Amino acid sequence: MVSSKLLEEFGFEEEIYEIINGQFLKTGFPKSEKRYQLRYEIGDLSVEEPYYWVLDLLKHSYPLIEKIEDSFSASENSAFFGVTQQRLGVQQDKVGQYLATIGKMVKELFQMVRELRIIDERREYYRGSRAQEGKAMKDRKNSDEITLKGMFVDLVQGGGKSPSSVFGMAAQLEFVALPDLFFDAPPFKDPKEMEDYVDGLTDFNMSVRRVLLRHLRHFIEWKKRTWKEHENRREFQLKYLRQHFDIIQMYVTWIKPYLKTVQRLQMKGSHQDSVSLISAFESAMIDIEIVAHHPDLSHCVLITFQYRTRPHMKFVQDGYQRGPVHVGELNMEYRVYDWDKETIAKYKKMKNDENMELLGNVSQSVLTAMHGLGSELERYYQEACGLDIKGKYSDSSPFNKNKNSRKEKEQLPLLHRLFGDFLNPPKKKNKSSSTKSKKLGNGAGMAHGVCWASYHYFKKAHRMVTW
Description:
Structural class: alpha+beta
Radius of gyration: 36 Å
Number of domains: 2
Shape: elongated
Largest sheet: 5 strands, antiparallel
Strand content: 15-25%
């Protein structure tokens, strides 16, 4: 059973049936073509027997049977509740450890991306300066070279505070023209070209030219060394970023089963508020929902089992471990729908949105943090994996092998590939009508027949009144 708002959001019309003459009730399910309801209560009822009896009968007619819901709740003072909470606590401890590690590593990603941004910014200055070296001396632009010289004076020479720097010598040693000559010098291909340029400054005395030559030679060597250093640092940082992100992905893969287990071990809120579940009683409620369908037919059968049971702990011979045995009441409902596989997938998605709220919250919080890094994270990760900007493997990439098997996955954004099990996939453009699959067979008669037969023969097999 889901809320009316969620049904409306996914485009389903809610089912309404008459419980008493003139009184109607919403069921919390989409409107069905046919509905059968059966309530079975017996003192020694076993929860497994009715479920597997119906499941085995459906297997004779439908090749595909999928579980939609599997949830339970127990009264707070029951022994079953205590055992379940112990198991839940162990799972939650594991989840907490993994989430703490993931949070720490996501925080470190910010520093990595920031450092790569700084390296890329400086590489642009180096590229602009190196691009001018192939031009004629009079046509060379100085903007990138001036920026690099400013960084050189500030970071290497110590700025105006150092007497040996360009500004320090101008202020303290009366080399007033030195800063202008140093910053106005164009980019040079090699030291020889730089020496020829300085020798051509005949308007200045030899002392000024000698000091200028010293500073320019120091700057040229620094620029060459730091260019290689930035390239090597960037390559290392890219590989480290990829390794770091892959480790996060590994931890996320590990945490998914624990999150799903925690979600399943948690009590269902609607059960806890039900009048059938009293905290002082030894009672429990179980919901099971399955859908049986055929890949070539457009009709399916949806069956829900709701148990109100009295669990008691029984010792199992192997290992002398305790396990719950349920006895009590079963409420079983059959529904026939004219759904194809796309509609079934939409219904499963609706149920998943209701049941997996915990997983979505956890994944969304991590995703929100990682989205703060911007598009650079995905661009850097793709580059580290040997991808081009469009997300395709380059010919020289070692990841080019088996690319067909990765094609569908690569079409998703990086973060959705990481958390795809918990989040809505990006919306795809609607395909044209010419690309739609051929219309499925009806299968209405088969669905109605199987539904009636299962309902009718279940009553006969369990000695109920039939007609």
